[in-house]
Amino acid sequence: PRIICVAGARPNYMKVKPVMDALERHGADVVLVHTGQHYDTSMNDVFFRDLGIRPPDRHLGAGSGSHAEQTGRVMAAFEPLLAELAPDAVVVVGDVNSTLACALVTAKAGPLLAHVEAGLRSRDWSMPEEVNRVATDRVSDYLLAPSADAAANLRAEGYREDQVHVVGNVMIDTLRANLERARSSDVLDRYGLTRGRYGLATLHRPANVDDPDALRGLLKALGRIGERCPLVLPVHPRAEQRLHAVGVPAGIRLVPPAGYLDFLALQDSARVVLTDSGGVQEETTALGVPCVTLRDNTERPVTVEEGTNVLAGTDPERITATVHRVLDDPPAPRCPALWDGRAGERIARVLLDGGTARTRPRPT
Ligand code: UD1
Ligand code: UDP
């Protein structure tokens, strides 16, 4: 069978790689389509190099823009490509605009649609990702859930049992495959950091970085934490100008976005990670590194219930108190079921054993 795998933004590459590899091991004709949502070397090229992903077979060149512009450009470019390539199935991962755009086009064009990371719910409709997740799941044939809680969300929403597959976490496949290589990165030396003696921070959620007052509050908290434990913060392009406009306290060192192996090394050796990223909540849980999430909610509750993640919200006092508590008494490392490095393989089996567009019932 011919299967298109879609990627387009930073958190997609580490999810699509194990799926592509497993599908190809089983003899599928995999076509990698890059939407072009992210395009900077540090947000894109470095992941192809670090993860050994072959150059995309097709590139849609969508670039940045408003939600409607970006989603619309991906849709308009993907539709004729789908007609030309006539795949049996399309695999989309995660919750970015590229995911939703290709899902909507596929659902109307006919190939089967598989969503990797189905069923995650923050229940926070102010997040663009929540809209993308719910809408993508709704039009998908295969709902590939990373954990039991995600599958339970889908069942509660009334999806058919034969559509829902708990396959584990593909992002952790990639983490496990690359951890030894990451440990030989020289990034700590380059930044003058010592294992266990610094904190790692990332910020890019619109609710945290687009509003100057919200960003100021977060930086105030990070500044106080930096007095006890110096912080290194690889800056997402969305946040760059805004961070400089608001002003960054001493104790927080801004560095460019890190490549995959360097960022994994930075997480692995950190005393604590402060983040509003989705993927970083999962990676810290897999590594057993304490994570404090700078949001009021998470679509990945398994990282809190079974992992090292603590939700701190966005109030500066509460963040500071939470981080001090975590530094004094770090949560015990535990890893959720099926985050075992074999999720890509399970996905390939589901897709290749699952029947064709002609034989499989569509979503009800
Ligand atoms: C996107 C995803 C978000 C994900 C994040 C991961 C959506 C709605 N959001 O957010 O879920 O967590 O990626 O990193 O899909 N920019 C650059 N260079 C690039 C890419 C972006 O400078 O290579 C700048 C542009 O000014 C752009 C802005 O970043 O307007 C935002 O990029 P965009 O892809 O729209 O959203 P992200 O905030 O990156
Ligand atoms: N990541 C990275 N360099 C960075 C920040 C994140 O390589 O400077 C990786 C991180 O290890 C994880 C993925 O990017 O694999 C998470 O993506 P991001 O935080 O951009 O998006 P989200 O998961 O919030 O959608």
UniProtKB/TrEMBL annotation:
Q: Write out the entry's keywords from A to Z.
A: Isomerase
Q: What is its EC number?
A: 5.1.3.14
What Pfam families does this protein map onto? Epimerase_2
Q: Which domain of life is it from?
A: Bacteria
Q: Which InterPro entries match?
A: UDP_GlcNAc_Epimerase_2_dom, WecB-like
Q: Where is the UDP-N-acetylglucosamine 2-epimerase domain?
A: 22-351
GO MF annotations for this entry?
UDP-N-acetylglucosamine 2-epimerase activity
Q: What's this protein's family per the entry? A: Belongs to the UDP-N-acetylglucosamine 2-epimerase family.
Which protein is depicted? UDP-N-acetylglucosamine 2-epimerase (Non-hydrolyzing)
